[in-house]
Amino acid sequence: MQFPDLRVQSFGGTTSYILNKNFSARSIYTQGEWQKKSSGSWVPFLDYDLTVFRNKIDEVKTKEFQYKIGGNIGYFYNWVIGKM
């Protein structure tokens, strides 16, 4: 089955918060900071997504929205092997 006029747009993201202020997530993702002591942190996440569906069937236009939101939690740890 084909839907030649179907258009789908999706927008979403993730927001997180690091609970331990002595933990550097930047040292993991961008290598923009140095983690000088081994440290870990619980990190709660909020995931969100909006999807818009547009279609035209027999000259009738339809538009539908789908919202998704979810929570998550993880633990991150930086293990520092040597001293700087």
From TrEMBL:
InterPro entries in UniProt: DUF4421 (IPR025535)
Name of the featured protein: DUF4421 domain-containing protein
One Pfam short name: DUF4421
Source organism of the structure: Chryseobacterium arthrosphaerae
